[in-house]
Amino acid sequence: MSALRWIRWPGRPQRPQTVPELFALADRLRRDGRTADAARLVAAGLEREPNNLTGHLLAAYLHLAGRTIEPARREFRWVLARDPQHPRALLGLARLALEENDLDACRDSLTRALGLYPDFPEAQALLGAIAVPRPSPAPPPPSPRLDRLRLPSLARALVVLGADGGVIAGRPADVKGDGDRIARAISLATAALQRAGLGAPRRAFVEDREETFFLRCDTEITIALALPRTTHITQGLLEVNRLWAAARHELTVRPEPGRVEDGGVVDRPRRTS
Asked: Among residues 4, 93, 143, 216, which one has the fewest Cβ atoms lying within 10 Å of its Cβ?
């Protein structure tokens, strides 16, 4: 018998695992970040019960954790084909739609879930996050000089968001799509922290398919640095922390009349007496 079908507890006799026990253990491992071990248990459980909804839902979650979007979508749809009112599968499709910036599909899945289960807090938080109205943008101020900042060699982009979630500066200049994704992630994180009775996020990271955005925030701005997904979390947060003060300084500096800027060297006005 496969070792996966046995629970191994120190000091306790071994006994065969039931399929529900396999999936319960897999879910605990998934929540602890041990996705490879969880995936093996889910595969073992589905081998014994191929039509188990819990197993397919766990498989979908594990695909999401591994950023394999289409397999996750297939698993969520498999569950909904057998239980059209499954709230977790509807929430999963809503999150996939949000990943792809399809707000209409996201809203539709959340509305279906809340129509069946009005007290579904995760769906409420997600719907509230995508429903937050964005204020009309004010006339843009002169663009800050972010090109004078020294970015890590592997950084793809630096994005600065204002308090309303709009992009106020970026390097390279065309980072609006990045800004929209970051603003949504911050909105979701803020909603989750508020439900837990905690304050607003100050430092965070947002994983995309091929890269990770490392964030530092306050009540006025958010600075996000895009680095490869292989970047260690501590290193990425240190890098964005290093850029924080310099970027804030650049946001307050505007070119003055008579100032000549070339290659990051600024000729300062001479004092006369």
From this structure: 143
